[in-house]
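Sanity check record (used in CI):
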Amino acid sequence: MPTPRTVVIVGGGISGLATAFSLQEQAAAAGYAVRCIVLEAGPSWGGKIVTHRIGDLTTEAGPDSFLSQKQAGLELCRKLGLTDQLINTNESAKRAFVLSRGRLHELPEGLITFVPKQLGPFLRSGLLSWTGLARMGLDVVVPRGPSQGDESLASFFRRRFGSQAFERVLEPLMAGIYAGDADQMSVKATFPRFVELEQEYGSIIRGMMAAKKKQPPAPAGGTRLTMFVSLRNGLGDLVTALTARLAQQGVELRTGCQVEALRVRSHQLGRWMYDLILNDGSALSAEALVLATPAYVSAELLRPLTPIAGGLLEMIPYASTATVAMAFPAHAVAGAVEGFGFIVPRAEARDLIAATWTSLKWPHRAPADQVLSRCYVGGVGREEILQLSDDQMVAKIRADLAALCGITTEPTYVEVNRWWKAMPQYTLGHLDRLTQLDAALSRYGGLVLTGAGYRGVGIPDCIRDGAVAAEKVLKHLANPSRS
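Expected output for Coproporphyrinogen III oxidase:
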């Protein structure tokens, strides 16, 4: 038996765990012997994927779902035996609303994909004025933008659909995903598909309609997945199943283990050893190293090796947010809650970014006599609320719910989850900086970065990027002089 090659993965969020899983899978297929160690500074696994179960309530402190259109999440669930636990959003309540000029207006079905399924409800929604609707429709004749260079999300969508559609619909949708400022965010880094559609079809609307026609029919006898899916008992089951499988495969999982410093040494051309100094004073050596930590954490570790890489990583900003779960007696909020919830444009100057009626959106989240909500606050330019105490934050959110929905009853349960510097911002020039980062790290074979800070913030994005990181590691171990 060959001596196993040691690979250390720093960071036990979904990116680090997915990297370890894919590394084991790819190494087994290639016949490589690998000793894999995953280090997590905190006390638990999964990063922002945190499910709480309190009596009959199930809350998600971080993400509550993932996109079914990106296959990496579904594929990992299949490999872990979780496919039968996947659930769709509730078809009977799939309406959503957006706050516009102080009132909640229904978001017409299909608007998120820019192909409204019925024109009448869209025209009658009152969400956009007639001039705003007409300007949005001009997307089919607005000329293509330049194919080179970068453009902000705000500039791109204003240019294609007009200011009104951007500010009242598109901006809050984007803020709900990235918690960022659309004037600073790169459209090529966040929504490259829209740029591709513009270049290919000359119009987002025409491109989305063409893509819709190309969609394969649902498999016979099968159930088509909704755009977002979750797990029956919460996304925490994904982390539980993943760590259990890794442990069975012999992966060493260490929590409470923080890397204080990183050193590099080489005994022959193209072969590096990475020495990690841990918080307990011990050291760990590896032939390949994956940093699945936030960019600012990786920056601190890499700065002594390459100040250029450290500086580039520091240029990836992070926003802070919070989720607040509240349960209300169902009889006390009857008629006040509809659909899945609502989003709030920045122009409305509210504390809320979005509110989800969790127990209406997902089955099995609360008993029938309770309504469970999930409120989202913070983000770029709106982080001031995070400086308040839990009680003060909840009071502000309840004031918004009272003003917008008429909910004044006391919640029976409240849970506040703060996420400091948790949401990476893909600002203008992000992709160029990643190219420069790859160049700065190119001399360190076997050193790989992965995580939400680089090529996608969603769960499937992180899983996919972890698989790419694992592939890079194995290529290095096979041909160290070529990596």
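The chain has three domains: 5-46+236-316+426-482, 110-142+151-214, 318-424. If this sentence no longer matches the regenerated tokens, the check is flagged for review.
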